[in-house]
Amino acid sequence: MPVSSQQEKINELKKEYDLDDSDFWSLPQNKRVRILRHDTCERIASMEGVRYEKPEWLSRGEAGVWAVQASGYIPNESDDPENILWTTGEASKDNCTAKYLVNMAEKRAKDRLVLKLIKAYEYGIKSEEEADDFKEPEDDKTVKTTSTEPKEKVPEKASGNGKKELISSLYERKKAWTELTVEAKNRNKGSTEVDGKNVDTWKVKVREKLEDMYGPERSWTEKTPPAATFEATELYAAYTELFPDLVDEE
Fold first, then answer.
1. Which residues fall within 8 angstroms of residue 115, CB to CB, at 6 or more apart?
2. Taking a C-beta distance cutoff of 8 angstroms, is the pair 120, 112 a contact?
3. pTM (2 decimals)?
4. Beta strand 30-36 with 51-52: parallel, antiparallel or unpaired?
5. Can you say whether the dihedral through the CA atoms of 138, 141, 144, 146 is positive or negative?
6. How many Å apart are CA 225 and CA 227, to the nearest integer?
7. Number of neighbours of residue 241 by Cβ within 10 angstroms
8. Spatial contact of 120 and 9, defined as CB atoms under 8 Å apart
9. How many angstroms separate the Cα of 138 from the Cα of each of 28, 30, 40, 135, 141?
10. Which own/partner contact pairs does 28-31 have at CB distance under 8 Å and 24+ positions apart?
11. CA–CA distance, 123 with 199 (Å, rounded to integer)
12. Measured between alpha carbons, how far apart are the two ends of the chain, in Å?
């Protein structure tokens, strides 16, 4: 069901990207604007596998302004950039207290692009980098423990149709799928004819391996993508089977 309010969108983002209340805060001067951390935007981009096009600099310090146009897309199963979006980011001494204006212009453009790609921007959800006033208020900051260990996960409930419960997080599953498919694409160029249709060779190889290891009933479709079908450990196991030379090197 499509979301109809900002809070519904935030709830959707929390569930989809394993976020919590510490990733958001409200703009003090306008409670209708919700702010998202910069590193959270980058984490979402990584989980979605956002592909960035070459940036176009619109101003390289002219009149003290650095402005860049960023464009990109979230790849679909066939990796066709069907929905490329673009947006801009700018930084100058008039709208930024940071010393590194080039870096800030890039951050603003990329964060804004990510939020547009996941359809959060239209709900008044913005990045903390968009303006100095968007930084988290000191009163809202809490002491956070930095850890490289993944959060403890609660097993996802079974849907009632006999599907296996997935324990690993969506982030872990998408990361495993990305590593598997990137290497498969590098090694298997071109297309293969299957049932009279041309299919990407890498996709055929990966699908055959997964079906061989886990059975055809676990195969994926557009409605049941790999990240919703296989555990991260299962995808890494397929990676090991397909590319033993890389595993031996590690």
1. 36, 41, 121, 125, 126, 127
2. no
3. 0.56
4. unpaired
5. negative
6. 6
7. 13
8. yes
9. 11, 17, 19, 9, 5
10. 28/137, 29/133
11. 38
12. 44
The Cα 46–Cα 44 span in angstroms is 5
Classified as helix, coil or strand, 92 is coil
> What Rg, from alpha-carbon coordinates, does the chain have?
21
Q: What is the pLDDT of residues 42-68, one digit of tens each?
A: 989 988 889 899 999 999 999 999 999
Chain-centre distance for alpha carbon 81: 15
CA distances from 166 to 99, 136, 154 (A): 45, 34, 10
CA atoms within 13 A of residue 103's CA, in its CB half-sphere: 5
DSSP string, 109-146: HHHHHHHHHTT-GGGTEEEGGG-GGGSPPGGG------
Mean local confidence (pLDDT), 180-194: 84
- Integer angstrom CA distances of residue 217 from 102, 214, 224, 230: 50, 8, 12, 12
Domain-wise residue ranges, the chain: 6-135, 170-249
Q: Distance between CA 42 and CA 103 in Å, rounded?
A: 14
Distance CA 44, CA 16 (A): 9
Question: How far is residue 234's CA from residue 29's CA, in Å, rounded to a whole number?
Answer: 48
**Token pair 């679909």: residue:** 76
> Given a cut of 60, is residue 128 above it in pLDDT?
yes
pLDDT in tens, 3-30: 679 999 999 999 988 888 889 888 887 8
99 DSSP assignment: S
- Both tokens assigned to 213: 């290891």
Residue 236 has pLDDT above 90, yes or no: no
